[in-house]
Amino acid sequence: MTTGIRLIVGLGNPGPEYDATRHNAGFWLADQVARDLSAQFSIEKSFFSSVAKARVQGDAVIIAKPMTFMNRSGQATGALMRFYKLVPEQVLVLHDELDLLPGDAKLKQGGGHAGHNGLRDIQSQLGSAAFWRLRIGIGHPRTLGLNQQVVGFVLNPPRREDTLKIESALDRCRAVVPALIEGRFEQAISQLHSGNGS
After folding, report:
1. Which of 96, 101, 168 is nearest to 139 (CA)?
2. C-alpha angle 137/126/180, rounded to 5°?
3. What distance in Å separates the CA atoms of residue 190 and residue 94, rounded to the nearest whole number?
4. Which of this chain's residues are annotated to bind tRNA (predicted)?
5. 23 part of the active site
6. Domain total for the chain?
7. 42 exposed, middle or buried (CB, 10 Å; 0-12, 13-18, 19+)?
8. Which of 23, 95, 140, 193 is labelled catalytic?
9. Which residues are annotated as a binding site for tRNA?
10. Domain of 142?
11. 152 within some domain
């Protein structure tokens, strides 16, 4: 049973002081997807999340922003997946990616966590790496020529020119969400990846 995506989890840190930071790129995309699906977020304590519920062609689609910190993202993801009786293959995680340049985005299923604390916790809580990941490039301080530690880098806002590139990547990500909900994964991958490095 592999239908399309039913649970979309944007990763970030809660609180206004983190809103504009690179590590919250997953939250930025989750907000845009919820708007596209005319869904409103509200805090659901039992899911440790801010949750928005939409219906797409009769199917429920849940968008969540965990209100735990990044390294506990699996708590919310696991609770939602179990409650809605989903399998990892129906879960899409939106997250910032140091290994991709600002403006790039990649979609993949499975794989390691590459040191991303949010992914590491989700993998551990779900007991599986088979969930989908939408990786939003934020660049790495080294590749961007910045003399900054990674921790400081992800917890700061991007430079203006990088912000514009990230916004353009988010637009391309939003455009493939309908295909993901319908289970047209190959089409979504080819559409998204064709816009990289442009």
Report:
1. 101
2. 50
3. 18
4. 18, 69, 71, 117
5. yes
6. 1
7. exposed
8. 23
9. 18, 69, 71, 117
10. 7-193
11. yes
**CA nearest to 52, candidates 83, 76, 68, 31:** 31
Q: What is the pTM of this model?
A: 0.96
Q: At how many degrees (to 10) do helices 160-181 and 25-36 cross?
A: 50
41 in any annotated domain: yes
Q: Does any domain span residue 21?
A: yes
- The amino acid at residue 158 is P
Structure tokens at 74: 């699996």
> How is residue 133 written in tokens?
């990941």
Instruction: Find the CATH number of the domain harbouring 15.
Output: 3.40.50.1470
Question: 59 near 94, Cβ under 8 Å?
Answer: no
Residue numbers in the known binding site are 18, 69, 71, 117
198 found inside a domain = no
pLDDT in tens, 59-110: 899 999 999 989 999 999 999 999 999 999 999 999 999 999 999 999 999 9
Phi and psi angles of residue 109, each rounded to the nearest 5 degrees, phi first = -110, 135
